[in-house]
Each structure stands twice: as structure tokens, then as C-alpha cells.
Amino acid sequence: MVNTTLFRQLLYALFLSSLLTGCGGGGDSAGSTLLSGIQGRATQGPLFPLTQPGQIDNGPLPGAVIIVQRQNGAEIGRQTANGQGDFKIAAAPGTYQVVGLAPKGNSGPPTPPAPQIVNVKADQYLTVNVSYDTGIR
């Protein structure tokens, strides 16, 4: 004999699970099931007015806002770079524009870069560097 209350609870749980699976985040309709997109690092430089040979003259830009847009300007995702300047945004295969905005609350340098046009391929994340200019010379 089947316990009907348990059976109903199981069906209800499966129903809720199927609804939640279809509600993934991210900027594209495919949600979190995408295996492709754009990842990278926001950097700023130069860091010194004069550099020495072998001296690293750029560094991460935490808080930089990275936006991925379709060619028509429609935004599909945005992320604030973490403490190391890293970001990762899921996107279906296609051509996109990567736009870097200044960190929130920052109206001066570093200056955001020009937008980059990139092509995302299926089942891979394209790695890009979004380089901001500090204006130090």
C-alpha cells in the first residue's frame, strides 16, 4: 500500500525542484547552465612615474565594474571585480562588447578603457584584461 501523503510530498518537492532549476541567475536566459563566457582581470597602470627594468608597473583594480553587452548595447551581465581584480560573467557563444566602468564612487583616475569587442566560443571562457589608465607619467 502506498502512503498518499508521502507520495504527494515527493511530487511537490520534485515540482519545486524543477521550478528552481529553471530560475538560474546570470545575464542570459540559459542561466547558470552556460559553460561559456568572459573572465579576466581588471588592472590599472602605470603605478610609478618611472619604472626600473623588471619592475611590474601595473596591478589589480578591485571594485572595477565590468559589463558585457550584446553588439546592440543590451546588457547581459555585470560584475564588480574582486580584491584581485578578477571577474567572470557567463555568456552564450557570440560576439560581445566588454565595457569597464570606474569603481563605484570613483570620479577620477584611473580612466576606464575603450570597450573591447570579443567573440565567445561554445564551452569555454574567453580571458580578457581590462586595463585602466592611472594617468601617472
Which helices and strands appear, and what pairs or packs with what?
Elements: H1 4-21, E1 37-45, E2 59-60, E3 65-70, E4 75-80, E5 86-90, E6 94-101, E7 116-120, E8 125-133
Parallel strand pairs: 1-8
Antiparallel strand pairs: 1-2, 1-5, 3-4, 3-6, 6-7
Structure in a nutshell:
With 137 residues, this protein is mostly beta strands.
Number of helical segments with 4 or more residues: 1
Order of helices and strands: HEEEEEEEE
How helix-rich are the residues, as a percent range?
Answer: 10-25%
Mean pLDDT: 81
Which spans have pLDDT < 50 for at least 5 consecutive residues? Answer: 10-31
Shape assignment = elongated
- Count the E strands: 8
Strand content: 35-45%
Q: Largest sheet, if any? A: 4 strands, mixed
Structural class by secondary-structure content = mainly beta
Tell me the distance between the termini: 82 Å
Rg of Cα set: 21 Å
Descriptive report:
With 137 residues, this protein is mainly beta. 13% of the residues lie in helices and 36% in strands. The protein has one helix and eight strands, in the order αββββββββ. The chain has one helix spanning 4-21, and strands at residues 37-45, 59-60, 65-70, 75-80, 86-90, 94-101, 116-120, 125-133. The strands form two sheets. Strands 1, 2, 5 and 8 form a four-stranded mixed sheet that branches. Strands 4-3-6-7 form a four-stranded antiparallel sheet, with no helix packed on it. A hairpin with a 4-residue loop joins β3 (65-70) and β4. The longest helix is centred in the first third of the chain and has 18 residues, at 4-21. The protein is elongated and about 45 Å long. The relative contact order is 0.23.
